From TrEMBL:
Entry superkingdom: Bacteria
Transmembrane segments: none
Enzyme class per UniProt: oxidoreductase
Assigned keywords, A-Z: NAD, Oxidoreductase
Domain Aldehyde dehydrogenase: 21-479
Name of the featured protein: 5-carboxymethyl-2-hydroxymuconate semialdehyde dehydrogenase
Organism: Peribacillus deserti
Protein family according to the UniProt entry: Belongs to the aldehyde dehydrogenase family.
Keyword tRNA processing part of the UniProt annotation: no
Active-site feature positions: E254
InterPro entries: Ald_DH/histidinol_DH, Ald_DH_C, Ald_DH_CS_GLU, Ald_DH_N, Aldehyde_DH_dom
Length: 483
């Protein structure tokens, strides 16, 4: 059955109302799979950000006093409504991003809803610490909300990543000014309506659409914003930190990665090939946790490569609305050209394109690229050092544990890694040596929302998940009572 697509204009959502920009400026929203204009997006700026901050500041006075049970009920309702409207939201996410519809339906939207349900339950059962002193005193640790929090989001997992920040932030009684990525405004814009329907008071969540250089910078600089939760490129994070330093904002940054997959000779080869296919190309290779540097022990290198290439060639790239599509379109013409440039660089650096490397010929419109495997490069090459964020991976052989650990850590990134071996001692030894915020052994993309999530080195600042998010979105203080 053909999926019925619909266009949508995106306004700002401020103080519970959808509004246009003060100067009536807007820009085209392009579907990357068809290159068609699918709506107009209001182009905000410092004026709209200021309006949103004033609304958030005002709403904070009552929201900060709301009961935990009230906040939990609203969060639960937001999660329920996201699931009720899953089909509509998934379609909007796919039209904005170019990712396959099955992925939006099975991962993006349910995981977004899951964050609201998780934090509704988390705050309902959460306690606090108390430290008794022998002199006859008790120290109680208490948490208060911060105030207005700014959120700046990327385009790759728009609603999912936004919800992972928004749910704990609201749970702790903060109010929010958030900016979706310029390329992907639709699900965030609809979230405004859903929050209102769930009973969230006006002004608690405010959404301003527009560019990073205008709206993003205005959020980063605003003196009444207490903290910034940002996901995006490392270079953008640095610029946000510089802009936000004037009033010493608190930062939570989820940044880029160049994650290693380390495959030892005693792995389950069939399983590794299947998982590597996903960790390389799912979401067009644009998941920050994708493993883009694949290291394979020399004794199984040829066998792995042959199977991996053969499976990669079976991947169907094309219409994201078709159920059998594995890989959809890249987010924009600009990004598509950037990824193609990296493939050219790989050739210049002496790399061999084992498969892929070209635009998809069968597609007349849209930014479709073949999944690409490159060999013959070493760690000094630009293609191995820099994050490509597309369906492009490199494969390199290694001999020893020490050698592969040094390859894996030879980067300024440190987001995630995966290690494949049946030897549990080696698994733990290697995992412990890898400089990454999250290392998987014999699996990939398995997440428990209670555990810390974030990057080491230049892959991030701070950790999210469970209590780690609660700590970020609250002011923790001590009350010492002498009795
Ligand atoms: P980006 O940094 O270009 O943009 C992210 C957001 O920042 C957008 O909303 C953008 O408009 C805004 N922005 C841009 N310049 C700004 C500025 N000067 N001031 C304030 N805001 C600004 O990133 P992207 O291309 O949207 O996303 C891809 C990147 O995100 C990749 O590097 C990827 O690894 C990273 N990412 C990381 C994680 C993680 O969990 N660590 C998750 C997803 C994506």
């Amino acid at each position: 059955m053909a999926v019925k697509v619909k266009n949508m204009d995106c306004k700002h959502f401020i103080n519970g109302e959808y509004i246009s920009s003060v100067d009536n400026k807007s820009f085209d929203n392009i579907n990357p799979a068809t290159e068609e204009v699918i709506g107009q997006v209001e182009e905000g700026g410092a004026y709209e950000v200021d309006l949103a901050v004033k609304a958030a500041k005002n709403a904070f006075e009552t929201w900060k006093k709301s009961k935990v049970s009230e906040r939990a009920a609203i969060l639960r309702k937001i999660g329920d409504l996201l699931l009720e409207r899953k089909d509509e939201l998934a379609l909007l996410e796919t039209m904005d991003t170019g990712k396959p519809l099955w992925l939006s339906s099975n991962v993006d939207i349910p995981r977004a809803a899951g964050s609201f349900h998780f934090y509704a339950n988390f705050i309902s059962t959460m306690g606090t610490e108390a430290y008794p002193m022998e002199v006859g005193a008790m120290n109680f640790v208490v948490r208060r909300p911060l105030g207005v929090v700014g959120m700046i989001n990327p385009w790759n997992l728009p609603l999912l990543l936004l919800s992972a920040k928004l749910a704990p932030c609201l749970a702790m009684g903060n109010t929010v000014v958030l900016k979706p990525a310029r390329w992907t405004p639709m699900t965030a814009t609809l979230l405004g309506e859903i929050c209102k329907q769930a009973g969230l008071p006006d002004g608690v969540v405010n959404i301003v659409n527009g560019a990073g250089r205008t709206v993003g910078e205005a959020i980063a600089e605003h003196k009444d914003i207490r903290a910034i939760a940002f996901t995006g490129e490392t270079s953008t994070g640095k610029s946000i930190m510089r802009a936000g330093v004037s009033n010493l904002k608190r930062f939570s940054f989820e940044l880029g990665g160049k994650n290693p997959n380390i495959i030892f000779e005693d792995c389950d080869l069939e399983e590794v090939v299947e998982t590597t296919l996903r960790s390389s190309f799912i979401n067009q290779g644009a998941v920050c946790l994708c493993g883009s540097r694949i290291y394979v022990q020399r004794s199984i290198y040829d066998k792995f490569l042959e199977k991996f290439i053969s499976k990669t060639r079976e991947q169907i790239v094309g219409d994201p609305l078709e159920g059998n599509t594995n890989i959809g379109a890249l987010i924009s013409k600009q990004h598509y050209n950037r990824v193609l440039d990296y493939i050219e660089t790989a050739k210049k650096e002496g790399g061999t394109i084992e498969t892929g490397g070209n635009p998809v010929q069968s597609q007349e419109k849209g930014y479709f690229l073949e999944p690409t495997i490159i060999t013959g490069l070493d760690n000094s090459c630009q293609v191995i050092k820099e994050e490509i964020f597309g369906p492009v991976v490199t494969v390199q052989p290694f001999d020893t544990e020490e050698e592969v650990i040094s390859y894996a850590n030879d980067t300024h990134y440190g987001l995630s890694a995966s290690v494949w071996t049946k030897d549990s001692s080696r698994a733990f030894r290697v995992a412990h040596e890898i400089e990454a915020g999250l290392t998987w052994v014999n699996t990939w993309f398995l997440r428990d929302p209670r555990t810390p999530y974030g990057g080491e080195k230049q892959s991030g600042v701070g950790r999210q998940g469970g209590m780690f998010s609660i700590d970020f979105y609250s002011e923790v203080s001590t009350i010492c009572i002498k009795y």
